[in-house]
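=== Structure Prediction Worksheet ===
Name of assembly: unnamed complex
Input type: mixed (protein and possibly other molecules)
Chain count: two
Listed entries:
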Amino acid sequence: MKNRLKIERAIANLTQADLAEKIAVSRQTINAIEAGKFVPSTVLALKISRLFNKPVNEIFELEDED
Amino acid sequence: MEILFYIRFNFKSIIMKTNYLFPHKFKWISGILFIVSISIMLCWIIEPDIFKDIEIKSKVFAIAETAFMGDNVYFGIIDTNILDELLMATVIISGLVFAFSKEKIEDEMTSKIRLESLVWATYANYLIFLFCVLFIYGMVFLNIIMFAFFTHLLFFILRFNWEIYKFNRTTNEE
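=== Predicted Assembly ===
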């Protein structure tokens, strides 16, 4: 799975720490998601989508191997 | 009816949020206690004579005591040195609390690290134990069994805290 979290975050002008605080995770977790090392749960994905006011599909996307 | 729904809803949310973890504030106190007690414990398993002069005699309730000489006792009061019981209880309780207390920021990533460390520690402990079963014989094998009880928790604690340490050090903001 790939994601546009970093881009969305830049558009919203948020740091990793800001985003982390808003969705109650650690900054390192945001870092891991952006680096593709961690796939967030549905709940977390929905929280992110609500925060950016965009559908989940626009932020997270399946890749061929998924 | 509304109250019933409310209770059910709350009950459900409590169930779903249960993660069987202790509060973060217990982590350091239990950690210190664990490191001290397990160090003493391991020394004791290797060299049982170091505590031969220290005794805390007490009458305790025993479900069973099988004596080397004399009669076996079942569901009775026995007279014994409770130093090893106290030490072992300290290791187990402080170990469990230390191993399973929440991180400062507890989220799904820390849960994932915890789970992976638990899997890793279980494999490591039993593979080492299997190795010992196959290649260690005689009285010293009893020591191995004693070790194996504690090393599972110990391996988990070491692995988990190492992984969390590495994770917390990841920085590449922007």
